[in-house]
């Protein structure tokens, strides 16, 4: 019996807490949603299983968790905590992004900018709730619905909140099909949802090649703090559009981004140990994140309605909801909601313009916040 009791003392059962049990259940829910509901499975499966792994209590004296010096998980998590993984993901996103719809109708860029209002209103809300300016900036970026950007900024401004912010950002990205449609329908009339937009104009190859270089120069001078994210995004896009580096572009948008997504998702999930994650701060962050995402969606829709007051060719206000940078899920949601009203109304290509503009907007917003709040 003494030997058996001694053995039990070396198992995770001896140090298991109710908090660990709750987090393991949350991890299982994430995996279930990914498999049964198809909610961003490429994100929720690695994150959900990482949550399960991270909440198996480690044995004292053994370096196992992301917080233990010398552990394998800590080395993997280094790419998250030091902001290495997000730029690599941006490289892959750039290599798979087509900016031609945005270039064909530049005024739709304004919808991507308008959706970023969620970031700054949430920053004010976080300040009101007692978070520091740096913490508030990191929390506010959740409204951009851009997980890599949220991780990058929080690793610079509020590394102690990194796990909570990352999980909140990716959770709301996965719940785009659930959270956005009610807001879109509430703020639009049926007549507005039936608006048909003219097809995008043809964009030449020269325009596609010039754009990433010119846009990087403009954006980097506006927000130097976003150089790494925007630089990698436009570098990946140049690999794609130049048509002479197809092997590199193909690697960036397939093998590399898949590998980084696996490592990032799993290690972020493993960082959610109940002892450090289940805190009142985390609950506030989740609440603020939901508010931020809803405000960002509403901001894009309402700004589209405002633009229609001055435009002869009207914009379908649903397209404004794609201004959050959850690419391409927000654009797909716009398409789905639009086709419920009119099965022959194709909004996907139009929605991609504010969608990719939202990626730029959230990255520039992160750069501005880092520059202003770092001190």
Describe the structure.
The protein contains 20 helices and no strands. The chain is mainly alpha-helical and 375 residues long. It has helices at 2-9, 18-36, 41-54, 72-81, 85-96, 100-104, 109-114, 117-128, 133-140, 147-157, 162-174, 176-186, 190-193, 205-222, 227-241, 246-270, 274-277, 280-308, 329-341, 348-373. 70% of the residues lie in helices and 0% in strands. The mean pLDDT is 89. It has one domain. It is globular. Helix 8 (117-128) packs antiparallel against helix 9 and helix 12 (176-186) crosses helix 18.
> What is the distance, rounded to the nearest whole angstrom, between the alpha carbons of the first and last residues?
59 Å
In total, how many beta strands? 0
| Rounded radius of gyration (Å) | 21 Å
Which segments are poorly predicted (pLDDT under 50) over 5 or more consecutive residues? none
The structural domain count equals 1
SSE string, helices as H and strands as E = HHHHHHHHHHHHHHHHHHHH
Number of helices: 20
- Biggest sheet, in brief? none
Q: Please estimate the helix content.
A: over 70%
The amount of beta strand, in percent, is: under 5%
Q: For the residues shown, what is the average pLDDT?
A: 89
Which term fits the overall shape? globular
Structural class: mainly alpha
């Amino acid at each position: 019996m003494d030997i058996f009791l001694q053995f039990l003392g070396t198992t995770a059962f001896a140090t298991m807490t109710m908090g660990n049990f709750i987090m393991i259940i949350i991890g299982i829910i994430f995996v279930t949603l990914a498999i049964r509901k198809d909610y961003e499975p490429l994100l929720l499966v690695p994150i959900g299983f990482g949550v399960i792994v991270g909440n198996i209590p480690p044995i004292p004296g053994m370096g196992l968790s992301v917080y233990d010096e010398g552990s394998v998980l800590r080395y993997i998590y280094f790419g998250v905590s030091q902001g290495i993984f997000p730029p690599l993901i941006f490289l892959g996103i750039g290599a798979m992004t087509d900016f031609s719809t945005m270039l064909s109708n530049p005024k739709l860029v304004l919808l991507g900018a308008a959706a970023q209002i969620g970031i700054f209103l949430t920053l004010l809300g976080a300040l009101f709730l007692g978070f520091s300016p740096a913490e508030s900036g990191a929390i506010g970026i959740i409204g951009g619905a851009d997980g890599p950007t949220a991780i990058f900024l929080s690793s610079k401004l509020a590394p102690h909140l990194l796990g909570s912010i990352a999980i909140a950002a990716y959770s709301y990205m996965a719940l785009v099909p659930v959270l956005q449609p009610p807001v879109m329908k509430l703020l639009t009339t049926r007549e507005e949802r039936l608006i048909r937009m003219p097809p995008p104009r043809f964009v030449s190859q020269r325009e596609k090649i010039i754009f990433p270089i010119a846009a990087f120069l403009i954006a980097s001078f506006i927000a130097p703090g976003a150089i790494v994210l925007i630089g990698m995004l436009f570098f990946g896009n140049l690999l794609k559009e130049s048509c002479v580096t197809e092997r590199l572009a193909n690697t960036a948008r397939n093998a590399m981004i898949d590998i980084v997504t696996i490592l990032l998702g799993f290690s972020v999930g493993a960082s959610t140990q109940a002892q450090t994650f289940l805190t009142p701060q985390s609950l506030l962050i989740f609440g603020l994140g939901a508010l931020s995402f809803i405000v960002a969606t509403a901001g894009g829709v309402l700004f589209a309605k405002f633009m229609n007051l001055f435009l002869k060719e009207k914009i379908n206000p649903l397209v404004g909801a794609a201004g959050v940078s959850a690419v391409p899920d927000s654009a797909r949601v716009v398409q789905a909601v639009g086709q419920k009203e009119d099965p022959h109304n194709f909004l996907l290509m139009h929605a991609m313009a504010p969608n990719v503009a939202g990626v730029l907007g959230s990255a520039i917003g992160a750069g501005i916040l880092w520059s202003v709040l770092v001190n």
